[in-house]
């Protein structure tokens, strides 16, 4: 998502973990749903870009906008079944450009703090336009879609509410992730990413390994 690369955002944290190993590319689009994402995806990841960039992993994080209530927010709402199909179509496109399903990690929508989000909605002149129970239906569909197409999944909706814990601190306004929520995502996502990236070599040698008399010998090798 758009805010993942803000200071202390989960994207920034993952990029920091992967410094000198991978470039972490943010293509989060604020307010978008899975239908719109499916349309623009070929512009974001094409055969040429995928083959030249040696993609280690792709995260797909949709559902918080798709699950908006149709009668309150028809612009962003996507029916549950279509949401599931869109996720699978995204994996199909990635496969068609050489990114296999085992490199894909779905992230479910997080839970919704309805009282806090309702305040935000009222400030914008609308009624509460999302429900936590509905977000849970979309999270479940995301988990099922991952299983059906061989992708991995980080089920935020379930994990953030595990054992009846208070999840409200993970959200800044009831919907979007707070700093604590970003930390939660980066920690749990790193667990899934680790096996995909830990064997990757450092890009360029450690400075102490460079021969000061003949730096080219170490710096110009593959």
From TrEMBL:
GO terms for molecular function: hydrolase activity, acting on ester bonds. The keyword Transmembrane helix does not apply. SUPFAM superfamilies: SGNH hydrolase. Gene3D superfamilies: SGNH hydrolase (3.40.50.1110). Keywords: Hydrolase. It comes from the Eukaryota. The keyword Hydrolase applies. Signal peptide: none annotated. InterPro entries: GDSL, Iah1-like, SGNH_hydro_sf. Probable lipase. Belongs to the 'GDSL' lipolytic enzyme family. IAH1 subfamily. PANTHER family: ISOAMYL ACETATE-HYDROLYZING ESTERASE 1 (PTHR14209), ISOAMYL ACETATE-HYDROLYZING ESTERASE 1 HOMOLOG (PTHR14209:SF19). This is Isoamyl acetate-hydrolyzing esterase 1 homolog. It comes from Oncorhynchus tshawytscha.
